[in-house]
C-alpha cells in the first residue's frame, strides 16, 4: 500500500496517473527518441521525431533501413521515401490509411506519437482498472510501474491490457507491453534515447 501512495504523490494526480502523464507530454513542443517494437511479426526499430501540432518523422532502421516517412498535420498526408534521401527526392504522397505507411501491427503514422499512445491507455482505463506497482528502474532511470486492464469484453482495438513504465522525471513512457483478452502479448515497445525539446534542423519535417 505504501509504495502505491508514494507513487500517487510522485505523479501529482492521485486518482489518475495516466492523465498526469498525458498532460505532461502534451506540454512538450518537440521530442525525439528511438523506438524498438517487438511483436508477432518481428522487430521494428525506428528513429522517431515529433513537433507540435502533429508533425511526425520516422527514419526506419529495421526492417526497412533507410526508409523515411513524414506526416504533416497541415496537409494530412504522409510522404514516403522508400530509399531515403528526402532532401533529393520528391517522395510518394499517401493517405495515413495506406498500408504502405502502416506498421506491421497496423499502427497509423498520424497516430504514432506518445500522446496518442497515452490516450489509448486512457480509453481502456475508463472502462477498466488501474493498478500501481511501485517504482522500477528502466535503463538506469527511476520509473513508475503500472498496469491498466479493461473490464471484461472492453478493448481498444485488440488491446485488453497495458503495462507501462513511466519515467519518474518526465512521465514519458519508457516501456509499454500490450496484451489481448487472453493475456497474450501483442507488442513490447521500448522508448530509448529520449530527448525532449531537441534542436531539430530546419526543414526536418518539410524537406
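Sequence proposed for the structure above (207 residues):
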Amino acid at each position: 500500500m505504501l509504495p502505491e501512495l508514494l507513487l500517487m504523490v510522485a505523479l501529482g494526480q492521485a486518482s489518475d496517473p495516466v492523465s498526469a502523464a498525458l498532460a505532461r507530454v502534451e506540454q512538450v513542443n518537440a521530442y525525439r527518441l528511438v523506438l524498438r517494437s517487438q511483436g508477432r511479426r518481428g522487430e521494428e526499430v525506428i528513429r522517431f521525431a515529433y513537433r507540435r501540432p502533429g508533425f511526425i518523422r520516422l527514419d526506419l532502421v529495421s526492417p526497412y533501413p533507410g526508409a523515411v516517412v513524414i506526416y504533416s498535420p497541415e496537409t494530412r498526408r504522409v510522404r514516403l521515401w522508400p530509399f531515403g534521401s528526402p532532401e533529393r527526392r520528391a517522395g510518394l504522397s499517401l493517405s495515413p490509411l495506406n498500408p504502405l505507411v502502416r506498421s506491421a501491427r497496423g499502427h497509423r503514422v498520424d497516430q504514432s506519437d506518445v500522446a496518442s499512445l497515452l490516450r489509448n491507455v486512457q480509453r481502456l482505463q475508463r472502462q477498466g482498472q488501474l493498478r500501481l506497482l511501485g517504482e522500477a528502474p528502466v535503463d538506469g532511470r527511476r520509473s513508475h510501474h503500472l498496469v491498466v486492464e479493461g473490464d471484461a469484453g472492453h478493448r481498444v482495438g485488440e488491446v485488453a491490457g497495458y503495462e507501462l513504465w513511466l519515467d519518474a522525471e518526465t512521465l514519458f513512457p519508457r516501456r509499454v507491453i500490450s496484451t489481448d483478452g487472453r493475456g497474450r502479448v501483442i507488442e513490447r515497445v521500448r522508448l530509448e534515447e529520449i530527448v525532449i525539446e531537441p534542436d531539430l534542423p530546419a526543414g526536418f519535417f518539410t524537406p
